[in-house]
Amino acid sequence: MSSDLGTTNLLLGIMAFVSVLQGLVVVAAGLTAFLLYRKVMRVVAAIEERQITPAAARVNAILDDVKAMTSSIREEYGRIMGLFRRGSDLFRRTRRDSSREHHL
Question: What Rg do the C-alpha atoms of the chain give, in angstroms?
């Protein structure tokens, strides 16, 4: 009976050692994943700082220019439409006055 317990104890010892080893592997994998995450986030931040931020600033400047141009075009359109309306009204009055003179 004592030989059976010796084999059982040996197997339990091996299983305990393997469990500890597995725990260490999981902790090492977690630590490695965390360090890799920090490194990737530093790279992403550097890329954002060097490339995305200046590109966003250029896009915003272009959008500001487009907004200013659109505003200017709207103002000019309003002026042109006002002139067109005045000209159209003048043409109608002139035509109406001219047709009244012909009827008289």
Answer: 42
| Distance from C-alpha of 6 to C-alpha of 2, rounded to nearest angstrom | 6
Residue 53: which H helix or E strand, with range? helix 53-103
pLDDT digits (tens, 9 = 90+) for 11-56: 999 999 999 999 999 999 999 999 999 999 999 999 999 998 899 9
Separation between Cα atoms, residue 74 and residue 68, nearest integer Å: 10
C-alpha 64/C-alpha 47 separation (Å) is 25
The Cα–Cα gap between 60 and 64 comes to: 6
